[in-house]
Write a structure and sequence with these properties.
Order of helices and strands: HEEHEEEHHEEHHEE
Radius of gyration: 22 Å
Helix content: 25-40%
Strand content: 25-35%
Strand order of the largest sheet: 3-5-6-7-8-9-4
């Protein structure tokens, strides 16, 4: 699949659309019952919508084993493993950090964080939860750590919104910052292949 910025844009658009939804309710004002409009969704729900957009996008992240493979067949004469050469492995732990990411986004909404710095830190921490990757058959795998060295700076998107920029432009700025950071995040760990038995290091940027 691989990371797709358009998927993130569409997910964030859906989240922003839901955040603006209103519901009609009746309230007692000065002894009279009047119909008023109020947000349909709670801040907790909105934080969940934004989290879902990011997680759905990031769940397509992959790494690739180099060509020739850095995995070495364990049996003599121990050549590079041809079966894993160029193999793409998809992240298996994209849901692990989702609750923590939602908590950070919710806190940012409640405090009206002007530069979304908390969300930036939350996304970096979320990427660090990408510790396991494998192919579809689960025969080739990698276990290690993912480091997002380029923070997804969201302040320009906030600034565009405060300057009354178009919502689509604000969303695109947010998506671009997040996507750029994920694309240069680096996984480093130990790789294995079950057939033929092979093992070795894997270092790859996310794809």
């Amino acid at each position: 699949m691989a990371l797709n910025q358009d998927k993130l844009v569409n997910g964030l658009k859906d989240a922003f659309t839901k955040a603006k939804e209103l519901k009609k309710t009746k309230k007692n004002v000065d002894g009279q019952e009047v119909e008023v409009s109020e947000p349909k969704h709670s801040q907790d729900a909105i934080a969940g919508f934004i989290t879902d957009a990011i997680v759905d996008y990031a769940s397509d992240a992959e790494i690739m084993i180099p060509v020739p493979s850095t995995l070495i067949v364990t049996a003599p004469p121990a050549p590079p493993d041809a079966a894993s050469s160029g193999a793409k492995l998809k992240v298996k732990t994209s849901q692990v950090g989702a609750p923590a990411l939602k908590s950070v986004i919710l806190a940012s909404l409640k405090t009206q964080d002007p530069a979304m710095t908390a969300i930036t830190s939350g996304i970096i921490a979320y990427a660090a939860s990408f510790t396991a990757f494998s192919n579809i058959a689960n025969t080739i795998a990698g276990v290690g750590t993912t480091v997002m060295a380029l923070p997804p700076l969201l302040a320009p998107a906030v600034a565009a919104g405060l300057a009354q920029g178009e919502e689509d432009d604000v969303i695109k700025l947010m998506a671009s910052a997040i996507h750029s950071s994920f694309k240069v995040a680096t996984f480093a760990g130990a790789g294995t292949n079950t057939a033929p038995p092979a093992a070795g290091p894997i270092v790859s940027t996310l794809m």
